[in-house]
Amino acid sequence: MLYSKNKIALVDCNSFYVSCERLFNPSIVKKPVVVLSGNDGCVISRSTEAKTLGIKMGEPYFKVERIVKENDVKIFSTNFALYGDISRRVMKTLKQFSPQMEIYSIDEAFLDLTSVKNENLLEHGHEIRKTILKWTGIPTSIGIATTKTLSKAANYIAKKEKSGVIDLINSKQIDKLLSEIKINDVWGVGRQLTKFYIRNGINTAYDLKKIHNGWIKKNTNVFGSRTAMELKGFSCISLEPHEEKRKSCCVSRSFGRKVTKLEELKESITTHCLNAAEKIRNDNQTVKKITVFIKTSPFQIGKKYYANSKDIDLPIRTNDSITLIKYSLIILENIYKEGYQYQKTGIIFSKLKDVNIYNKNLFSTINNEEKRTKLMKAIDYTNIKYGRHALSVAQAGFKKKWNTRRRFSSRIDTACFDLLPFVKTS
DNA sequence: TCTGGGGTCCTAGGACCC
DNA sequence: TCTGGGGTCCTAGGACCC
Predict the structure, then answer these.
(1) pLDDT by residue (tens digit) across A262-298?
(2) Could you tell me the CATH superfamily of domain A8-13+83-232?
(3) What 3-state DSSP class applies to A315?
(4) CATH code of the domain occupying A16-79
(5) What is the pLDDT of residues A192-203, one digit of tens each?
(6) Which residue's alpha carbon is at the shortest distance from the C1' of B3?
């Protein structure tokens, strides 16, 4: 195996959701800001000012409420329509710097910079950063290295530096920087591996880099050894510039209040089905397997916990909402138990395949298939044109009393003119 | 009162085959 | 009494990511 000669940049947006909210609300720039998860449950994005106040990632809102009130922290409910839209703009801009790009998540991308000369890498990084900020208003951090894992590490360091760009390829102090990264902050090392490594005296990224190959291979799985090898500078995880279609599609939500009635669970499952079906139709895919799950809150002490899920292998693959709802509700009735306070439901569509691999089989029960396909197209079109949920099915419920809470929504939707903020010109 | 949502990949073990 | 061995495929559950 040879040392990697790749030049990979990881571009990561700083406090992405917070930065998105700030774009439309200049008054919260340089103020402590927090974005909450669905149902206003947990903290999922924090500005540096909020971090400084001691607000931790993933903490439930009620636990940080005191800090929030005392320090006038600005709070926002998630607005994924907005974040997705801003993300697309960032990625489009990034792509101009390298067509060989892998979008890794909503706020990060790996860029192949192999065509850039070594001595120009740092400058190039700054150029990227400046352009993204100017064109989209989103601040980023950039790490450049020879493997993905090392560029992740470089990015981690860059986040703490004012310059915002770290180039490990020309750096003479890689090991010193790696020893500043705690083992649990290494990409690919989660809770379980952290426990194991610390037990064995491996406390930093540098410690892991120094570990003998044989020991890693013997004591961890392929994940573990891949990460260690990448830290040593051997490329094991390649850049994947081609966007692949998803292999499964999950829609789940916590309720705004506890739900006990089967009728209401049916409404939520139906709603999830409609959303997921729309997604996969948009990707030209069909479903073969449906999983439905329901659960009560695991945090309610003294109350009985119940969680269950079941799946069905469809006789014929489809992306027809009505059919998918029908089967999902059958599963739901199967796992529903009376007397519990349900907190969450969800559905997973899996074994997805492209529509053109469609396999008509002898047992097809949808005789009016063509009409159904047209109906679904009409529904999708209407919902794009007149807003989500313009057309739905009655089973999804009209009032949806169980619906998710979003008390702190900024109500900004760049795809919906009615919700755009006003600008006074006089 | 109040604890997110959406993914991927790996692995062990069972079912089944000859 | 003695009760194979090797292979494939599938799946559930775990670990990890953002």
Answers:
(1) 999 999 999 999 999 999 999 999 999 999 999 999 9
(2) Reverse transcriptase/Diguanylate cyclase domain (3.30.70.270)
(3) strand
(4) 3.40.1170.60
(5) 999 999 999 999
(6) A60
